[in-house]
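Need tokens for this chain, all 718 residues.
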Amino acid sequence: MNISVVICAYTLDRWDDLCDAVSSVQAQTRPADDIVLVVDYNDELFLKATETFSVRVIPNQETKGLSGARNSGVAASTGDIIVFLDDDARAESTWLAELIVPFDDPRVAGVGGWVLPRWSSETPTWFPDSFLWVVGCSYDGLPPSGAHIRNPIGASMALRRDVCERTGGFHAGLGRIGTTPLGGEETELCIRYATTAPEDYFVLRRESVVHHHVPAGRASLSYLVRRCWSEGLSKAAIAAMVGPENALDAERGHATRVIPRAFRQALVTTVRHPQTRGRALAAVLVGFATAVAGYLWGRSVLRRRQPVAIQDSWRPVPIRRIVVEEPVRDIAIDNADQVWVEVVRDGQVVGRRVVAIDHGVLTFAQQTQLAKQFSTVAVESLDDFDGPWPRATVIVPTICQRADELVASVTMLLGLDYPDFEIVIVDNRRDASTPFPDLPGGDRVRVVRAPQPGLSAARNHGLAAATTDIVAFTDDDVLVDPQWLRAICRRFAVDERVVGIGGLVQPAELSTPAQLWFEEYFGGFSQSHELIMSGPDFEEDDPLFPYAPGRFGAGCNMGFRRSALAEIGGFVNTLGTGTPAKGGEDLEVWITLASRGATLAFEPRALVRHTHRNTLEALETQAYGYGAGLTAMYANLVLTDPHHLVAMAKRLPLARRRLGQSRADRRPTEVPSFPPSLHRREREGMLAGPVLYLKSAWALRSMTPTPAPFTGKRTRRP
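Here are the structure tokens for all 718 residues:
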């Protein structure tokens, strides 16, 4: 079997411990086949680690925190078995050899090692062994070696790769409640896996030993109390995700057997040595009471702050897509009270709705009503154009989170039904020290490097490398319809006035409530299914034009005449994913072109499907980024051309009314199903956006400029 060891680090304060951890892994009697050190958003640590260690050092490419870092390590590793070691733990020489022994049984999904405390100061005699979990170590009450356990301790554990792939990895939602750090990511992952593979199990291997460093500051009663409180909150969060029965199964046994025994032992020693052992009794009493109080308080907070639907948000829900060409008989959908419906005519999606259903049935009457509702949507054929088809360039920026996904994306693009096009992949990784994956396609696929971080800079580098006037943009995480490029280029070919085209973006799946909430709250990426044309030759009936977000499309599905983008300088480098401003770069281009009188189009036949964020925590982060990107973009417009300020102020009251009405129209029920935290996070982002824009502009001063004429700098319109 192939073994990968993943170590996650986030601070230079643990540098000596990190050196010990890496050295101990390199000195194993059974060497690791692959060692990956993940640095969690600390550029100084990343640079020092890269220069010091002879292992693979990568940045965390996912959500900041231990869960995201572990997921990044899993994605970058190559092993069938993935072993995790804390950055402040030192492994004994036989640790790895002993840890992988149980994997000879194919039913073993994961193995936990034995974690001993390595106190930096004198071992505290008062600290009860039953509470060693407080400092991340193995504790009194664990079963013998080889016994089945609910989950391993994160400081030393091994998982089959299949465990991470089937569950989607560690859950970043177990980050914080308020300012209190939570844990339990490995607990939640193991419980989630057990529901999908009940025949598999996790085991304890006491012979596999690591020594976990415990700083002097943790050898205190106050730290024990804080950590017990956090543990209670963690269990409350996990209980909300997987149910109290699964979340507290091991804790019940610990509370009913181990804690009473520890209390009796502490009581006896206190009677015999009241001056020296009284703290042990206090530790047991206060620690247990604090953990229970933290759990109860956390459950109360989650009930108050989140609707009931959120407590089930981490479980797959039976939401299905029904494609309705013509109404058919009643369709039974097991265990569902709502269903995603796409109405399709002549191969084009002409409408969508989330439909509430009764008794698990989408009725013939409901289908007929939907078909009639969208019967007036105009559908144009792609076969009415004889050519010649213009040559085009497809530009795909990437930070290459998963090489296999990028290869699959390029393979899909090579299969587009279009006669003549090239593909430009823009490498926008922060760390380019590792080789870029080999891509299929030969000379049709070129890779260019964009050293400046940010999606705008990457797109500008792609524009500079393109050899055609028609350029189409998509992302490496979307599914592209085979007719996508044909639909974009047909519109350019039949109407020479058009300089920009946005396309239809539909969800690739709706398998979690968070993905449905994205559609309900934001309206998805596309808010129309009909052809839209705007420009000097077309009458504009939208009073919010050109400032309404989402009119023409999203960055993952758009095409332009390269010459038109060259005239305005390309995409603004101070905006977009990968910059402090978070986003807004695609919307800014549409507004800039429209305000200068350009002819733009929305082409619904240009279809891609996007995989939405599948957890509430990721969706909240996305809401914050959208809010920040929106106001950062508006700040850029005003600072570039103050005339925008007056125009936007006039439209603000109408924009607020329309936003509220559109969200009400998208609800599958009268009461919103999306959590109020989305609105709160979006508002927080909107408030922060202008400041983040200024921060982004300041950071850009020291960056390498993008190639002319795509400088990413916007000038005032003539």
